[in-house]
Amino acid sequence: MDKFTRVTGIVVPLRRNAVDTDQIIPAVFLKRVTKTGFDDALFANWRNDPEFVLNQPEFKGAKVLIAGSDFGTGSSREHAVWALRDYGFEAVLSPKFADIFRGNSGKQGLLTGVISEADCEKLWNAVEANPGIEITVDLPSQTATVGDLSVSFDIDEYTKWRLLEGLDDIALTLRDEQAITDFEAKRPAWLPQTIPARQS
Amino acid sequence: MTSPRTLAEKVWDDHLVAKGENGNPDLIYIDLHLVHEVTSPQAFDGLRLANRPVRRLDLTIATEDHNTPTINIDKQIADETSRIQIETLRKNAAEFGVRIHSLGDIEQGIVHVVGPQLGLTMPGITVVCGDSHTSTHGAFGAMAFGIGTSEVEHVLATQTLPLKPFKTMAINVEGTLRSGVTAKDIILAVIAKIGTNGGQGYVLEYRGSAIRALSMEGRMTICNMSIEAGARAGMVAPDQTTYDYLQGRPHAPQGTDWETAVAYWNTLATDEGATFDAEVFLDANDLEPFVTWGTNPGQGVSLSDVVPSPGDFSDAGERAAAERALEYMDLTPGTPLKEVPVDAVFMGSCTNSRIEDLRQFASIVRGRKKAEGVRVMVVPGSARVRLEAEAEGLDKIFEEFGAEWRFAGCSMCLGMNPDQLSPGERCASTSNRNFEGRQGKGGRTHLVSPLVAAATAVRGTLSSPSDLEGGN
Ligand code: SF4
């Protein structure tokens, strides 16, 4: 996982509340066997609609999403985060995220910043007045800036630290690598071993 | 002197790599990681993306089970999703060097049947698999639980998991089971008693004379369904029954290693005076064959009872659930369960597809003919179980009875392969989940023991062996 400090890029206003993970990525895509290649699956049911915001040429190549309240509710599927990341999103701002979605995001390098309802409205207005405008989301200072509008966002200290350090769960555990190796050195030899397979 | 500890606490303590501080989880070492085709693809993909190897190939083993067909196994798998999942597992196993037992291999089968059968599952170890019924392995006194795909990746990469300690619950089952009553009836009764959430946050330890008297197959049936009570794991302390089952299996310790291992295993039982966070008591003497009438495993009653009425439940939530379940199941309150006719009988799944389960089923159907119009499917848990059954002539008994004798896999337990119920079909099933549509869209499932499944196949309505002419 790459270290996250700041992202600057096109920002998309998604004026909807309670976008659940089924809307972020419909269940039919869960049959896939990879962790990448979900960009076409993102908001798949809405993408058929030419009016849908992501279909507007101004927002091509967007990196930041500003969504309404209660983003990521519903099923705990990690695919929702994969799909957002694959599409190119590096940060999502919303007045409220579902807990599991937030947890999954933090583990996979997608920043979820909590902004106030009022700031959300201001950001939407600023972007809609000037579609295709860039935003800068700065993690150390916890600010998001569009033109001369700058708002602050909340993120818990632990997730912030992980994002800044670029630590996924595995990397985090591997900081204890020495302890694992020490533990392994003491394991009795008779414990199960799958290889080599003994003849029965 | 250390204070008295439970079995679960001892296994936990012996696998502590690093103690979590400030409310952080402990880091727990994993001794055995079982892998199958459904929950592993993205885990391997994650390793590939991050350029990480599998840390301990010697503690990892893969098999194919959820998607495998149970007939024509030499033909290409027709369903594309199933085929892709299986092909992906094979590719990943080859690329990373993981031992795999593919369809057609003598050790292929349901992952929870394969581990114990190879002697890989043993007392005092930690076992994980990307499947909730991993709790099965707790029958050996192992700490075994299901994990999600990102945790599968985590174990592949580090052989550890960050975990918060569980609470402990003792399930005391004392007494002697009547003839015709089995482990499946015990666990269905336990779940009916504590509810499908009753075990949430706990490791269950099954104790008492009725548990001690069970075979390993019976203990596995019980631990298997711990998850249906909301628990992540269930355990039984190892004893002579455990050792007799294990000794001589391909991966069991041998020679002086065996002596050392047994000496250690004998220290694992819960200490006198250790306290559990919760305790439940069940009288085995009173138990009758059990059956579910609803759409969760907690909605069960004795087979001699009638279909309950929503009004029987004082809790409003339970009442509403019962109403909905009865509608889905198309059952009328007050109907004796023994008058409920079935369309199908499924004998299989990781709950009941071991050789002893098949023998029990055979003991009832031997020399009989199945009821007309009932479709009976017998699916062994592993290729080896299938061979064992054939060596004993069980396949002939099943075929003469009119049952279909299939190849190993999960099959109609979840219907990811073509073995499914049609809408409206009613099935007596030895599996573990009676959720709406679990065995096929619109299918209706009654969970039962192998003995009840067999008697039901004979009479065509839900039945226990004692209902059969000439008895059992
Ligand atoms: S038999 Fe059923 S419960 Fe068991 S592993 Fe297969 S699908 Fe899951």
Would you summarize the structure shown here?
The complex is a heterodimer of chains A (200) and B (472). By secondary structure, chain A is α/β, with parallel strands linked by helices.
List the strand order in the largest sheet of chain A: 4-3-2-1-5-6-7
Give Rg of chain A in angstroms.
20 Å
- What oligomerization state is this entry in? heterodimer
Gyration radius of chain B, in Å: 22 Å
Low-pLDDT sequence parts of chain A: none
Count of alpha/pi helices of chain B: 15
Biggest beta sheet attributes of chain B? 5 strands, parallel
> How would you write the strand order of the largest sheet of chain B?
5-4-3-6-7
Distance between the ends of chain A: 44 Å
Taken as a percent bin, the fraction of beta residues of chain A is 15-25%
Outline type of chain B: globular
Molecular structure report:
The complex is a heterodimer of chains A (about 200) and B (about 475). Chain A has about 200 residues and is of the alpha/beta class. The radius of gyration of chain A is 20 Å and the shape is globular. A 7-stranded mixed beta sheet of chain A has the order 4-3-2-1-5-6-7. The mean pLDDT of chain A is about 95. In chain A, strand 3, helix 4 and strand 4 (about 110-115) form a beta-alpha-beta unit. The relative contact order of chain A is 0.17. Helices cover about 30% and strands about 15% of the residues of chain A. Chain A is built from 8 helices and 7 strands. Chain B has about 475 residues and is α/β, with parallel strands linked by helices. In chain B, about 30% of the residues lie in helices and about 15% in strands. Chain B has helices at about 5-15, 40-50, 80-95, 110-115, 150-160, 185-195, 210, 215-225, 240-245, 255-265, 315-330, 355-365, 385-390, 395-400, 450-460; strands spanning about 15-20, 25-30, 30-35, 60-65, 100, 125-130, 145, 160-165, 165-175, 200-205, 235, 280-285, 290, 300, 345, 375-380, 405, 425-430, 445. In chain B, the strands form 5 sheets. Chain B has a 5-stranded parallel beta sheet, sandwiched between helices. The longest helix of chain B has 17 residues, at about 80-95. Chain B is globular, with a radius of gyration of 22 Å. The model of chain B has no long low-confidence stretch (mean pLDDT about 95). The interface between A and B is large, with 32 and 47 residues. The structure holds iron/sulfur cluster. Iron/sulfur cluster binds near residues 349, 410, 431 and 432 of chain B.
